């Protein structure tokens, strides 16, 4: 944690300390700046652009976000009484953010921590047989898009034009199938273990547990299965060969994450930088209002991270 209590202008402070902040993230995987005094979306966006001028557009999101400025978004809209388990942003994409930027404008009354976990340490703590299976087969993400639950086609792809969506899917190794009701189902197979493109460290890099059906609260899962059927869940994960992932595997993954999680409650004005490949992040349940802005930047190609499975572009 760095203290910026002497800062009179948050953006000027970030300009002055940009290189030190970037170096700290490279060394430690994350850094929290406290006392910076970020007060509004305009100030947060300005600070983000100082740290990295080329912010990424949000694509393939799993939940809606509010857009504050180009490349600056709200946290994913997720029930505040439900956790968002550990994950790496866009770990299912072929181009992913190498750096995540967070700014807290309004801290919750209780909870709402953005937990962090070192992905190399998580990998080392997992059973070798399980890791080898995921290295051999990768992981499979299935998604069902509609206008009722999760992100819609337009929210995830930035358009509802079928031809444009299909072009994106083909270019990004995503199998797709349009449903009779106009909904969309997709499948994409990715590597669960990658090497950091800078340090070369092997990292457990995926959203296997977070987007799996067994992480969903039981009563919500039962409702979704009852209404949409087991194939119609908004998202689910499998071993890369299509085998189901049992509840005990998901529980094991979440337990290992929890054992390696560090937590620091948000304070209004905080700024946090997170290496998206080295460090997983989560969002814990909370009470009261919570406004944390997010930006994704420093794009990385999955192909530059020594993936363990081949991805075929159709």
From TrEMBL:
SUPFAM superfamilies: Clavaminate synthase-like. Gene3D superfamilies: Clavaminate synthase-like. The keyword Oxidoreductase applies. Keywords: Antibiotic biosynthesis, Dioxygenase, Iron, Oxidoreductase. GO terms for molecular function: dioxygenase activity. It comes from the Bacteria. It holds the Pfam family TauD. The keyword Oxidoreductase applies. PANTHER family: GAMMA-BUTYROBETAINE HYDROXYLASE-RELATED (PTHR10696), TAUD_TFDA-LIKE DOMAIN-CONTAINING PROTEIN (PTHR10696:SF56). This is TauD/TfdA family dioxygenase. It comes from Streptomyces lunalinharesii.
């Amino acid at each position: 944690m760095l203290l910026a209590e002497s800062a009179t202008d948050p953006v000027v402070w970030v300009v002055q300390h940009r290189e030190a902040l970037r170096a700290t993230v490279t060394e430690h995987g994350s850094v929290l700046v406290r006392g910076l005094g970020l007060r509004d979306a305009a100030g947060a966006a300005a600070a983000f652009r100082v740290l990295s001028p080329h912010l990424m557009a949000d694509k393939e999101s799993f939940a809606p976000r509010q857009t504050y400025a180009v490349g600056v978004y709200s946290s994913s809209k997720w029930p505040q009484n439900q956790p968002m388990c550990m994950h790496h942003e866009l770990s299912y994409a072929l181009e992913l953010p190498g750096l995540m930027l967070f700014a807290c404008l309004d801290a919750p009354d209780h909870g709402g921590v953005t937990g962090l976990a070192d992905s190399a340490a998580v990998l080392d703590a997992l059973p070798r047989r399980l890791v080898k299976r995921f290295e051999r087969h990768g992981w499979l993400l299935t998604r069902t898009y509609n206008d009722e639950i999760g992100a819609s086609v337009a929210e995830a792809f930035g358009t509802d034009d079928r031809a444009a969506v299909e072009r994106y899917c083909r270019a990004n190794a995503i199998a797709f199938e349009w449903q009779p009701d106009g909904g969309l189902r997709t499948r994409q197979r990715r590597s669960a273990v990658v090497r950091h493109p800078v340090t070369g460290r092997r990292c457990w890099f995926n959203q296997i547990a977070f987007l799996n059906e067994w992480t969903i609260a039981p009563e919500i899962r039962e409702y979704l299965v009852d209404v949409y059927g087991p194939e119609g869940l908004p998202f689910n994960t499998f071993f890369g060969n299509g085998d189901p992932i049992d509840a005990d595997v998901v529980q094991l993954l979440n337990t290992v994450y929890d054992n390696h999680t560090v937590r620091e409650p948000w304070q209004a004005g905080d700024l946090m930088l997170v290496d998206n490949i080295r460090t997983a992040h989560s969002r814990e349940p909370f009470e009261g209002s919570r406004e944390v802005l997010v930006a994704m930047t420093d794009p990385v190609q999955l192909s530059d991270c020594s993936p363990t499975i081949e991805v075929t572009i159709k």
